[in-house]
Amino acid sequence: MSFSEQRHAPATLRNRDAIVAVLQTILPASGTVLEIASGTGEHIIYFGRQFPQLQFLPSDPDPVNLQSIAAWTARERVANILPPLGLDTMAKNWDVEPVAAVLCINMIHIAPWEASIGLFEKAAAQLESGAPLYLYGPYFRDDVETAQGNLDFERSLKSRNLQWGIRDVADIDSLAARTGFTRESLVEMPANNISLVYRKS
Fold it and tell me: Would you call 140 exposed, middle or buried from its count of C-beta atoms within 10 A (0-12, 13-18, 19+)?
């Protein structure tokens, strides 16, 4: 695996510690944590170091990202990172063993709504009662004025793909309820992002 295949997302360095602070409060003591849409792979490498008692399973539907994840894993030699899987939340079937937690960072706004539906449906099938599903990214909230930066970002997303866009927390909560999840917490994060923590009912 060539290290030249490693991709870098600058935002990872800015948000990873804030995300870890939330994960420390919700992740189980043992088991496998599945990350959906792992992107470059930088987050999951960092998480693997922060939580050595857990196994981390990265995934992404993009072959270029899968190569990047594998390259980061080979370079950093973090023992508790499993080989990445080519998972797509909109695919009909997954060949994945049950996991102890599911993470999804910065996917929901750059994917069709059907990807969010698939995420919750697949997570419901993978998780036991009480297990966490963690989301991170920008979201709209009816009771909070939207930051100008997020409004500008929304316009940028729509200009690139009309099926993309910042989702409303109320819509995510409704989807969660339909698929057997309950929101446990909403945590304010830097740069107008939030963490949403759901538990399998």
Answer: middle
Residue 19 belongs to domain with CATH number:
3.40.50.150
**Model-level pTM?**
0.93
57, 125 contact by CB (below 8 A) = no
CA distances (Å), 72 to each of 58, 69, 75, 140, in order? 11, 5, 5, 33
List the structure tokens of 123. Answer: 């997570």
Q: CA-to-CA distance for 196 and 76, rounded, in angstroms?
A: 29
**Total number of domains constituting the chain:** 1
Q: pLDDT for 155-181, tens place per residue? A: 999 999 899 999 999 999 999 999 999
If one counts every other C-beta atom within 10 angstroms of the C-beta of residue 12, the result is: 18
Domain that holds residue 43: 3-200
Report the side by side order of strands in the sheet with 55-58: 55-58, 32-36, 101-105, 132-137, 193-200, 181-189
Strand 101-105 vs strand 32-36: parallel, antiparallel, or unpaired? parallel
* Residue spans of beta strands (DSSP E) within the chain: 32-36, 55-58, 101-105, 132-137, 139-140, 167-168, 181-189, 193-200
